[in-house]
Amino acid sequence: HAAKQTGEPYRAWSAELDERAGEHARLGAELRAALDAGQFQVVYQPIVRLPERRVTAVEALVRWQHPQRGMVSPAAFIPVAEQNGLIVELGAWILHTACRRMADWRAELGALAPDRVSVNVSARQLARADFPATVAAALATTGLPARCLTIEVTETAVFGGGQALTSLHELRALGVRIALDDFGTGHSSLGLLQTVPVDVLKVDKSFVDNITEAGRHTVIARALIQVSEGLGLTAVAEGVETAEQATALYELGYRLLQGYYFGKPTAEPRFEVDFIHAG
Ligand code: C2E
Ligand code: MG
Ligand code: MG
Ligand code: MG
């Protein structure tokens, strides 16, 4: 409204929007070609259990190796793929790729393989009635047991109930685990736990960031581990970057941690158990 008074800022804002819309459309068209050209890759980030430091799981994260732009962040292209619908096909490819890789690790590494792979799923995928069948097909064609797969969804994706909630119940019936991603940042986080079938709470990085300062974040992180334990859920702390954060989280009761401190997402993750010297 302030913009209307002067005129100029409004025009600048409008031009910027046009530019962004143009960029969006360009990116959207490129995504289709990129999928056919094999420019997407899946990388894996360890989720570590303390105190053993065992890599119990890996999270699959998509990457776009663009021939001109270099590595494009999923934060930039996932929203575009959601909007133009390509996320359904791209998401199915990610799911198959991650399940195949996890099945290969199990065959090659036996007991040294992680227990499960975690795959992110968008609201648009979850809202489709055929999504559970897509998951079942990925498991069937790769031979991966359902218990070795976790589906990560955000609170926002399941907030509306409806088909998304039905999909989650069907996934659960297959034996797949459900994780609520970025927990605590969406709508009605705690309220959702009353109705949504969920196994894992991924406590958002924003609560981990200042965990060593004994402020509000610490109080919330402590409350979330208590809620998690009380409901029989598994808590994972996201975005752990320092040893101090890991120690503070461990003292609060967190046993599953993920973050750059333990390992960045990579195409060739390592699973060797790095034993802590017991004295
Ligand atoms: P997310 O699922 O919450 O994934 C965690 C993000 O945090 C990843 O970013 C990861 O690289 C980053 N991260 C992990 N540890 C640390 C840390 O210690 N410090 C910092 N600063 N960052 C850390 P990434 O890979 O860029 O993905 C961003 C988001 O894009 C994901 O958030 C997820 O919402 C979405 N995304 C990524 N891959 C997929 C996918 O295959 N399908 C869908 N639907 N969404 C995806
Ligand atoms: Mg995730
Ligand atoms: Mg997350
Ligand atoms: Mg996140």
Automatic annotation (TrEMBL):
Ranges of residues in domain EAL? 24-279
Superkingdom of this entry's organism?
Bacteria
What is the protein's given name?
A: Diguanylate cyclase (GGDEF)-like protein
Give the organism the record lists. Answer: Actinoplanes ianthinogenes
First and last residue shown, out of the full length, are: 446 to 724 of 724
